[in-house]
Write a structure and sequence with these properties.
Helices cover 52% and strands 9% of the residues. By secondary structure, it is mainly alpha-helical.
């Protein structure tokens, strides 16, 4: 299938049907070609996101993307897709965080993830004995062993966590909560301490606080199955449920030798347009280098924001003919200023999971707000989507 036919369909859906004749430079993108999160005018407020994270003013419109592809010496092709999603192909899953890690901040303020500090041999032997007691359900004995280790290493986060477990399994929920809270002060960017606090708070029947801790945990480890299962099991207590995943691509772009292919479900113009945007980012190395400073094709907020802008703008124009409630939700989130957080929660956490714990404080706080507002939703809401 010639790319031009696909582009005509996507362009019509994206509000760019009035294209200039071949060989005539197109006029600047008009309002219809703007991304879903529009650039500010002199009278409009500045965007809520910081430039360099997801700044709509840096986005290319579909018309501009189309022009780049038309002018490119690289060959672009289209193959028929099948109904279904291409999530794993568009955003492949990266390496998951280790169970115990610490965030290290260097002198310049840059954060990196490192393994938990190893214990000295003698303390490790004491910990091994305590762990054996825990596995045998001798929780009091395990507690004593953990406290013995913590007496020598009071700031060791993993041992502080398992001390909370030993207390929780003895029915000492308030003491367990205190242990988990101490762990959270030692490693505030580890989801485990917040997740385990929720367990203790549930036993103490402090349900609103438990919901908050689940939100904290999800903001640090988005979509983690253990957290989702716990929320589902305890939803009637905390009055919350997890909203369905929003971004489920129905098209993809991929490189085969020197050619770029777009594989698309023909029944979704919005996701076709998204795949065309991704194709440009995949195929145009020089353009990518100019825009993000590297010829390596990896995750950037600029690429994901730009392609989601094309997706949502196209959806806005075709949703009567091709309704998609998930994209309605995404459009609402973008219009309310949380596009960067949607990208962090559903994309970055998949492809580079270890990037979430090293986000700056402001981004993590906004991600927590995003989870509370759009992910962990009230079970009694009339418009609450079903799982």
């Amino acid at each position: 299938m010639p790319l031009s036919l696909l582009l005509v369909g996507c362009a019509t859906a994206s509000g760019v049907a009035r294209e200039s004749p071949a060989g005539v430079p197109p006029s600047p993108p008009d309002a219809e070609a703007a991304p879903a999160v529009t650039a500010p005018t002199e009278t409009s407020p500045e965007p809520e996101v910081e430039p360099g994270i997801v700044d709509p003013r840096a986005f290319m419109s579909f018309r501009q993307i189309w022009k780049v592809i038309e002018d490119s010496p690289r060959r672009y092709n289209v193959v028929d897709g099948v109904p279904g999603t291409y999530t794993n192909q568009v955003w492949p899953v990266g390496d998951a965080p280790t169970a115990s890690f610490r965030v290290v901040v260097d002198s310049s303020g840059e954060r990196t993830v490192a393994s938990a500090e190893p214990l000295p041999a003698a303390s490790q032997r004491r910990l091994d004995v305590a762990e054996e007691a825990f596995r045998a359900r001798r929780f009091k004995e395990a507690e004593e062993g953990y406290r013995s280790v913590l007496k020598r290493h009071p700031d060791h986060f993993p041992v502080q966590l398992v001390l909370g477990d030993a207390l929780l399994f003895q029915g000492r929920s308030a003491e367990a909560l205190a242990a988990y809270e101490r762990a959270a002060t030692l490693a505030p960017r580890s989801y485990s301490a917040w997740f385990f606090q929720a367990s203790a708070l549930l036993r103490l029947e402090r349900f609103d606080e438990a919901a908050d801790r689940y939100a904290r945990a999800l903001s640090l480890r988005p979509s983690w199955p253990s957290i989702l299962q716990a929320i589902e099991s305890n939803g009637r207590h905390i009055g919350r449920q997890v909203a369905p995943t929003i971004l489920k691509p129905r098209a993809r772009a991929y490189l085969d030798k020197d050619q770029i292919f777009v594989e698309a479900d023909p029944n979704s113009f919005a996701w076709m347009a998204h795949a065309v945007c991704k194709a440009m980012w995949l195929g145009e190395t020089e353009l990518r280098t100019r825009r993000v400073g590297t010829d390596t094709h990896g995750f950037t907020y600029l690429e994901e924001g730009e392609c989601l802008g094309v997706l949502l703008n196209t959806h806005r124009n075709v949703r009567e003919e091709q309704p998609d409630p998930a994209l309605d939700r995404a459009l609402q989130i973008a219009e309310e200023g949380f596009l960067a957080e949607l990208i962090s929660y559903e994309i970055l956490s998949r492809v580079v999971p270890m990037a979430i714990p090293v986000l700056d404080e402001a981004m993590l706080e906004r991600l927590h707000t995003f989870v509370e507002r759009y992910v962990l939703i009230p079970t009694q809401a009339e418009d609450a989507p079903s799982r």
